[in-house]
Amino acid sequence: MSTTQVRSPSSSVFAGICEWDNEFLALFPHRFDYIYANHPEPGCTPAWQTERRHPLSDRLIQQGGYLYGVRFGSYTRYCLLDIDVGSPYHPQSDPLAIGRVVATLEAIGLVKYVACSSSYSGGVHLYFPFDLAQSSWELAGVIAALLENAGFALQPGHLELFPNPKPYSSQHQPSLFNAHRLPLQMGSYLLNEDFQPIWSSQQQFVQQWQWAQAHNTIDSQTIKRLLKQIRRQSYQISGKADKFINDLNAEIELGWTGFGQTNRLLGRITMRAYIFNHILTGSNPLSGQALVTEIVNVARSLPGYQDWCRHQHEIEQRALEWARCIENSHYYPYGQEHGKHKAPKVTKTTTTAIKELPSWNQQQAAGARERIHHAIADLLEKNSLPISTTARFRLLTQYGIGGGSLYRHRDLWHPNYLTEHTAESTTSEVSRTHKTIEDFMPKPIDKEIEEKTINESQEESTGRHKQPDRSISPVQDVASSSSTNQALKQSPHQDAEHPEGSAVSPSLFPITGGNVACALAFDLLSLIAIDRIGGNVRRWLKSSDGDS
Predict the structure, then answer these.
(1) Where in the sequence does UniProt note compositional bias of the Basic and acidic residues kind (predicted)?
(2) Per-residue pLDDT averaged across 464-488, rounded?
(3) How far is CA 183 from CA 26, 125, 161, 197, in A?
C-alpha cells in the first residue's frame, strides 16, 4: 500500500502572490504591518489604518482599491526623507535646503536620490537607494545624528526620516518602524531637477532608482564608525561630564586622517580611559599597566592607524608616557578623589545639619503662621479686629493668607482657640509695635467727674423706665443705660466702615468706670473675654431698646 507524503506548509506558502516580472514592486519587499486608507476627497487627509493580519500582496497594490504604505524590516536597501509643503526645507521656502541635506548625507556615501511628490498636498519624497542591505536601526541613527548636527529639525510637518530612529519597546516586543506611502499612487509623480512634476511610470521610477543606487556607496563599517563618532549618547552622570564624554568620542572615533595626529589622539584616548572608563564599562577605574593596555588597544583599533600613524613601533612606550602624565595631573576618575583637585568632602557635621533642616512643608507652614501673626498684630494695632469669626476670617484673607492656611492654623486667630498663651505668643512675635496694656487703657479721669457721670446716667434711666432686676457686669451696666444706648446709635463713628459685629472704636463709649472693661477689650489679652461677653452685650442692647 503506497502512501503519499504531505509536506507541512511553511509561512511562505501563505504569503501573497508575487509578480516576479514587476521590478517596481520588488523595490519594497517588506509588506508586514502595512497601512492602507480609502482614497480621500480632494483637500482631505487619508485616514490611515494598520493591517496586521496578513502581508500586503503585489496584486492588492496593482488593484489600486486603496492607498497603501509599507514599513521597514530589520534591514533595508533604501531610506526616505519626507519634506512637507509647509516645511522651511521645502523648495518653495528654501530652494537650497535639499542641496544642504544631500551634502550632509555625503558623509555616509549617499549622494543621489529619486525625487517624487508624495501626494496632491505638494510634499516631496527623496528616496536614497543603495546596493548592500544595512541595519535599519543603525542607518536611522546615523542619518538622524548627521542631520541634527547640521541644524535640521527632524519632526512631523517639517522633515521626517524613514526608517525612523525608534526606541526599544517597553512591552518586551519589537516596536515597528513608521510606515510611508508607496510612490506613484494617486497624486504622486516624479520630479525633475527643479522639483516640478513630470510624466511618470513605474519603469521610469525603476530606471532612476537604479541610477541613484549605482552612485550611492555605503557600507556597514562606515555607518558604525560614524554612529559612534557623531551620535551623542546620554550617560547617567552630570551634564558637564556627559558633554565631556561626547566631546572626547567625537575626536577619538574618527581616528587618523593624516600624519601628525598621533600625539593628540593618544592624549584624548588617555583622558577618556582614565576619567570615564569605569563609567563606560562598569569596571573599576584604570591605572598603571591596565591603563596603558587600554590606550594601546583603542589606538590600534581606530581607523587610519595603519596608514597614518608613524609611531606604531613605539606605541606602547608613548602610551606609558601618557598614562604617567595623566596620573600626575589634576585629572582624576569621575566620582572619586584624586589629584590636586579633590571632590568636595561632606563632613558628619554637614550631613547632620542637612538632615536637621526643615522640610519644604515645614517651611511653608512656618511662613503661613508668621503671616497670620503679623496680620493679627496689625489689626490689633489699628483696633479693627472683628469679633465674629466670619468677619475675622474674611479680613485676614485680605492679607494674602489663603483659606486653607487659616483653617490649619486657626489656633492663632479663631476666638474658640485663641488663649492667653497664644495672645502672649503673638505679642512676642510682633514686639515691633511696643504696645502694652497701659497703651490701650483710657486716660486717668477725676473721680468726682466719673461719679457724677454715673449718677446722671442712672437718674435719666430711672426717670424713663424701671431698671430691670438683674445681676449685671460692669460692661452690661454701661449697655443698660438708655442714654448710653442712644449715644451708641447716634455716634458718628457707627457708619458703613463699622458694621454690626465689627470692632468698635473705644471713643463710642463714655469714659466712665463702667466701660473700663470695654477699653481693655482692645488689648491683646482681652480677645478671650470679648468673645464671651459679646452675646450678652447685644442681647442687653436689644432689651434696652425695647424698654425705652
Answers:
(1) 431-454
(2) 43
(3) 13, 8, 16, 13
